[in-house]
């Protein structure tokens, strides 16, 4: 079943509200979409599933999922008490040519400026079909949050532009951290070292810390 892109923000929110309270299995049956037994080898399946259900239209990884609305979709795995279970992937960190990119032109800014959060609740050992979609909400990053995200992004980009890819680690960044992004250690990508020479290294990605997304969730859903 193909869902056309929503034409307005209101239409998108109406669609998300129709998902609230339903299990993944219920929605999948309505959409005639098969559900994997587990997500160990299908890390991105849950997000892609919700994107399909809502009519996300962006085929460009550097643009928001609903490109004409400027809205990115992010699923947020939580437990049934409302605790965020993992960090949130944002996008790949380009390890070459970052010095030419400005913050407002970056995929990180475009994807985090306005986000449709879709929390999905699950319990340990629970089947994917029984995961339950909680109340989605639209979040516009306030200026003070954007300022911290920008600083985190600029610090990472500066290390890349100076050829100090080896100094990137997950401890850096208040809200936004950089971590290796690869299915295994054999998946390598190109980067530039301090001497300006091309080297091979693990791909890196930007992730939002779970402590940060927990704050967003509590503020928007009034969790205690």
From TrEMBL:
<keyword id="KW-0963">Cytoplasm</keyword>
<dbReference type="GO" id="GO:0004519">
    <property type="term" value="F:endonuclease activity"/>
</dbReference>
<protein>
    <recommendedName>
        <fullName>DNA mismatch repair protein MutH</fullName>
    </recommendedName>
</protein>
<dbReference type="GO" id="GO:0005737">
    <property type="term" value="C:cytoplasm"/>
</dbReference>
<feature type="domain" description="DNA mismatch repair MutH/Type II restriction enzyme Sau3AI">
    <location>
        <begin position="54"/>
        <end position="152"/>
    </location>
</feature>
<dbReference type="GO" id="GO:0006298">
    <property type="term" value="P:mismatch repair"/>
</dbReference>
<keyword id="KW-0378">Hydrolase</keyword>
<comment type="function">
    <text>Sequence-specific endonuclease that cleaves unmethylated GATC sequences. It is involved in DNA mismatch repair.</text>
</comment>
<dbReference type="GO" id="GO:0016787">
    <property type="term" value="F:hydrolase activity"/>
</dbReference>
<keyword id="KW-0227">DNA damage</keyword>
<keyword id="KW-0540">Nuclease</keyword>
<dbReference type="InterPro" id="IPR004230">
    <property type="entry name" value="DNA_mismatch_repair_MutH"/>
</dbReference>
<keyword id="KW-0234">DNA repair</keyword>
<dbReference type="InterPro" id="IPR037057">
    <property type="entry name" value="DNA_rep_MutH/T2_RE_sf"/>
</dbReference>
<dbReference type="GO" id="GO:0003677">
    <property type="term" value="F:DNA binding"/>
</dbReference>
<dbReference type="GO" id="GO:0006304">
    <property type="term" value="P:DNA modification"/>
</dbReference>
<comment type="similarity">
    <text>Belongs to the MutH family.</text>
</comment>
<dbReference type="InterPro" id="IPR011335">
    <property type="entry name" value="Restrct_endonuc-II-like"/>
</dbReference>
<dbReference type="InterPro" id="IPR011337">
    <property type="entry name" value="DNA_rep_MutH/RE_typeII_Sau3AI"/>
</dbReference>
<dbReference type="Pfam" id="PF02976">
    <property type="entry name" value="MutH"/>
</dbReference>
<keyword id="KW-0255">Endonuclease</keyword>
């Amino acid at each position: 079943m193909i869902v056309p892109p929503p034409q307005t923000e209101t239409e998108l929110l109406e669609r998300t509200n129709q998902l609230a309270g339903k299990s993944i299995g219920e929605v999948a049956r309505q959409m005639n979409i098969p559900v994997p037994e587990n997500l160990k080898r299908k890390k991105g399946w849950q997000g892609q599933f919700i994107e399909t259900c809502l009519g996300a239209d962006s085929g460009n990884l550097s643009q928001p999922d609903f490109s004409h609305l400027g809205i990115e979709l992010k699923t947020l795995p939580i437990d049934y008490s409302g605790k965020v279970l993992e960090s949130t992937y944002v996008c790949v960190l380009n390890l070459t040519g970052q010095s030419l990119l400005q913050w407002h032109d970056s995929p990180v800014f475009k994807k985090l400026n306005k986000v449709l959060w879709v929390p999905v609740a699950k319990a340990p050992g629970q089947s994917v079909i029984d995961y339950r979609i909680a109340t989605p909400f639209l979040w516009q990053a306030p200026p003070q949050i954007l300022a911290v995200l920008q600083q985190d992004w600029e610090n990472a980009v500066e290390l890349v532009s100076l050829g100090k890819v080896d100094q990137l680690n997950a401890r850096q960044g208040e809200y936004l951290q950089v971590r290796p992004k690869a299915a295994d250690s054999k998946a390598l990508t190109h980067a530039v070292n301090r001497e300006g020479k091309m080297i091979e290294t693990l791909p890196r990605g930007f992730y939002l810390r779970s402590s940060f997304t927990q704050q967003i969730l509590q503020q928007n859903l009034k969790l205690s």
